[in-house]
Each structure stands twice: as structure tokens, then as C-alpha cells.
Amino acid sequence: MLDRRTLIRGAAALAVSRFLLAARDAQPVDAPLRGPLDPFALGVASGEPVRDGFVLWTRLVGVRGDRVIGWEIAADAGFRRIVRRGRTVASAGRGHAVHLEVAGLAPGRPYFYRFHAGGHVSRIGRTCTAPASADRLRLALTSCQHWEQGYFGAYRDMVERDVDVIVHVGDYIYEKSFGKGPDVRSFGAPEPRTLSDYRGRYALYRTDPDLAAAHAALPFVVCWDDHEVENDYVGERGVATADPHAFLARRAAAYQAYFEHMPLRPSVLRPGGEVRLYRTIDWGELARLHVLDTRQYRTPHPCDAPGKRGGQVVRTCDAARDPAATMMGAMQERWLARSLADERARWTFIAQQTLFSRLHLPDGPDAAYSDIWDGYAATRNRVIKSLAAPAVRNPVLLGGDVHSFWFNDILRDFDRPENAPVATEIVTSCLASRSGPEALFGPALRLNPHVRFLDNQHAGYVLLDVTRDRVAVEARAVTDLTDPHSICRPLARRTIEDRRPGVQA
Ligand code: FE
Ligand code: CA
Predict the structure, then answer these.
(1) Are the C-beta atoms of residues 460 and 478 closer than 8 Å to each other?
(2) Dist. CA 282 → ligand 1 center (Å)
(3) How would DSSP label each residue in 451-467?
(4) Ligand 1 centre and the CA of 144: distance in Å?
(5) Distance, CA 447 to ligand 1 centroid (Å)?
(6) CB distance 155 to 484 below 8 Å
(7) Angle, helix 377-387 to helix 330-341, in steps of 10 degrees
(8) Shortest CA distance to 69 belongs to which of 104, 19, 16, 110?
(9) What is the radius of gyration, based on Cα positions, of the chain?
(10) CA 180 to CA 336: how far, in whole Å?
(11) Residue 138: helix, strand or coil by DSSP?
(12) What is the pLDDT of residues 111-161, one digit of tens each?
């Protein structure tokens, strides 16, 4: 029988032989690069912290063919104490992106890293391993960054506040202009459809100095929403791209470009074009973050008006309660239920894309907006049931997408507001975009007693300070989206107390 040590040695040998095979035809690390371009112009990034490691990312630009690049990890910012170094291949087929999964480091401490190629050295990145045990965690929750509608200065605020992890729940890029067009700067390119178009869009985003600096300074945990492909798409069904074959080709290009630019594990790429983004991140036994993907596996929107696809207000719609409709797909739902059944953490966070709570609308008692969880009420009920598992001590939903801040009580039955909440929901506004539709959200406070705070005027992000006894939640608003040097200021503070679901003053 193989023991653990032999298995590890075997795995290491396999990794080495895979590297040698890949490296045989690749340009060596010190081969000169063509042209004057800095191959590391897109910067560096890290993510997926675990107790003994993380994922490091970079993507070379201006190179052809596969090539070997060098990497180093140090315990100090001056690289005097280098703890790991090695080589890896940046392959042309993956857009010269590198996703380096590192293991065997010490828990709960910062590390510094950099890459080398052709005599160039990347900027220095800083990241950390997850702690083995923890009594605090500082998260930044963010979503929705439209290049044309605002500067990304809120990221400076996250770096200054020294957060542990940035959780990005989607609309990392936008595929197109909306409304009256650019407010602050232009995409300068048409809507992306091919892999090379989407690569160009991400590369443009990484030229934003605040976004690039945040990636270099802090680990990100990311999941996409719709605009990483196209507005309001669901599963294999496009909206703007109605032809099914054209949509699947567009989605495949968009998915690959997303993977190529994010600090994700290489193993998220699955056969058949799936990118498996649902997963958990642990912070000692203080917190477990379940990251959901509510786009890739969704069934079509219920009760579409004829000839009109995408999210809309549906007045009466039994299909929105159909148990066969799903926001997550059966596999992901089972995975979540199993994970929650054996939860050990004090705080259970569910990071997902959009508004989870019921949103009663002025259009009638059954009216629902079909792109949010109201379009898939049966999935929501199943998730609420899983959150009631005895192992789950403090369930907290985290979301974005709606370009407005919401702090909500989650009820087992949203038509019975007199009952005690069973969970809490925190929704961040857009980081850089225009506010949500006032017709939809304006009457929400009046019609939805479980909505405890709502702001549809500001962009920004949410800071969550997690300790054993409570989570301190702070909405932070960007003072001026049109000013690249704008600061953030606190907009609202609330708390969530241990063993007391719901929003407290
Ligand atoms: Fe958005
Ligand atoms: Ca969205």
C-alpha cells in the first residue's frame, strides 16, 4: 500500500515531468523578449487562500509561443528570506496566463512574490495564507465595476483599510456601454465576442492603477455574474445573442478569458467548457465562505414576455415558484446542502451574485423581478432550508448586482414579517456604476419590512469585520465616481450578533 509520503513524492514527480514536457518546447526564462513592452504590464494577483498556500497569477503580454517564467516567494518584502522559487510555463493556448498553486507554507501569515521573464521582473505582490485558527477576519465585499461609468478608487480604500480578502461577486467587467454612454472614459473597442476581444477587455481593466494595485496588495476570491459574458444571460441561453450556437461560442470565449485573468486554481477548468467556481474558503473555524455561481447552471427566466428575454417584472407567474426551476443547478444545490449539513464555522457566509430576499413590488402582490432570486423562489426556499441545518450557527448571505446597498432580514416566509429572521443578508452597491432602477427600488422600504437599510444613491463597497461575537458591517460610499482620487466615507453601520439572525442597529 502506498503511504502518504510516497503519494506526495509521486505527485511531485508527476508535476516535475509534466513541467519538463511542457517546458521542452517553451522559450527559456532568460530568452530575450521581442520589443520594448513590459511583459508584466497586466500586473500580478493572488487568491484562494488556504492554510498552507494560495494561487499566484500573472499573464505575460507581447510574447509569442510558450515560454518558461520564473517565480519567487519570500517571507519579507525585501526578498531576503526567499522560501520558495521555481519555474512554470506560460502557454500561448492560455493567453500566457500563469495560475500557480502553492502549498506547504505556514498558516496565517503574509508572503511576498514576484515573477521573472526575459530579464524583466514583475511588480511585487503581497498575499497571505489562511489562518489555522482566527478570532478576526476583515472582508471587503464588492461587485459591478463599469469602466465607462466611474473610476475604481474604492479599491484604494480597501487597501488602506488592510482587509484580509476582497470578495468580488461579479460584473467584474461590463461587455458594453449603457444609457447615455461613457461618463469618465471609454472602452475604446466594440462589444467583445471572441476570445481575443474578451482578453482585450480584461487587459484594459488591469490598466486601471487602483484595480491593479489592489490585486497586487490583497488576495481576491471571485465569482462572475452576467456581464462577464452578456447582460442577463442564463445558463446556455443568451439574451442579446439569441442564436444558441453563437451564444455558446461567445460564452466559451468569455469563460476562458475570465479564467485567464483571475487568480483561480487551474483545476476549475472542467471538460465540456464548465468553469467550476462554486467552492468554500475557510478562515480558521471563525468563518467559512461558500461561493456560489448563480449564472452558469440557471434555468431560463420564468414568464418571459413574448419576444423579450432577460430580467423583467412579471406580474403573476407560477413558473417563478416551479420547483424544477433552479438558480444553481441540481449538483451545486446538493453540494451546498451537504456542506451546510456539516458546517463547523461560527459564521457561515454565502457569497453569491444578486438580491436573495423577496422584493415586493408596487405592481401587485405576486409581482416579481425575474432575474433575482424572486424568479427562482423554490431554489431560495431550498437554500433557506439548508441554512436551517443545526450545524449552521450564523448564516449570512452576501450579494451584489443591484447597484444599491441593502441590509435585510431573511425570513422563512417573507409574507409573515412578524416572525423572527432565520438569516441575514448584506448586499453591496456597485463599485463604479450608476445606481439601480428607482422605479423598482424606490418603493422597496415601504413594501418590504424585512429590508432594514437601503441606499440607491451611492456606489462603494461593504466592509465586514468578523469577530467571534459579532460582525460589524459598514457600507462605504465613493464621494465622487468621476474623480480618480475620490475617497470613500461611511454611509451606514449595522451589526449582526452571534446566534441572533437579522440586522441590528
Ligand atoms: Fe452590475
Ligand atoms: Ca449583474
Answers:
(1) yes
(2) 27
(3) EEEEE-S--EEEEEEEE
(4) 4
(5) 24
(6) no
(7) 20
(8) 19
(9) 22
(10) 41
(11) strand
(12) 999 999 989 999 999 999 999 999 999 999 999 999 999 999 999 999 999
Which ligand is in closest contact with the Cα of 430? 1
Low-confidence ranges of the chain (pLDDT < 70): 1-24, 34-36
Distance, CA 33 to ligand 1 centroid (Å)? 38
Q: How far is the CA of 86 from the centre of ligand 2 (A)?
A: 39
CA of 442 to the centre of ligand 1 (A): 18
Residue 102 grid coordinates? 502553492
Ligand whose nearest atom lies closest to the CA of 354: 2
First and final CA of the chain: distance in angstroms? 58
- Cell numbers linked to 502: 437579522
For the chain, domains (ranges, CATH) are 4-128 (2.60.40.380), 137-172+263-504 (3.60.21.70)
With 0-12 / 13-18 / 19 or more C-beta atoms within 10 angstroms meaning exposed / middle / buried, residue 505 is exposed
- Give the whole-angstrom CA distance, residue 342 versus residue 340: 5
Residue 134's pLDDT is 97
* Nearest ligand to residue 372 Cα: 2
Q: Which residue has the cell 461561493?
A: 291
State the ligand closest to the CA atom of 143.
1
Phi-psi region of 310 (alpha: psi -120 to 50; beta: other; left: phi over 0): left
Which one of the ligands is nearest to 431 CA? Answer: 1
In this prediction, residue 140 carries a pLDDT of 99
pLDDT at 31: 81
pLDDT score, position 2: 43
pTM: 0.95
pLDDT in tens, 170-225: 999 999 999 887 899 999 999 999 999 999 999 999 999 999 999 999 999 999 99
User: Which ligand lies nearest to the CA atom of residue 224 in the structure?
Assistant: 2
Determine the distance separating the centroid of ligand 2 and the alpha carbon of 278, expressed in angstroms: 17
Q: Report the alpha-carbon distance of residue 169 to residue 344 in Å, rounded.
A: 24
Dihedral, 129, 130, 131, 135 alpha carbons, nearest 10: 130
What ligand has the least distance to the C-alpha of 355? 2
Taking the centre of ligand 2 as the mean of its atom positions, its distance from the CA of residue 132, in whole angstroms, is 34
Phi, then psi, of 222 in degrees rounded to 5: -120, 150
Question: Whose atoms come closest to the Cα of 295: which ligand?
Answer: 2
Q: Which residues pair with 163 in a beta bridge?
A: none
Q: From ligand 2's centre to the CA of 272, what distance in Å?
A: 24
**Grid cell listed for 397:** 448571505
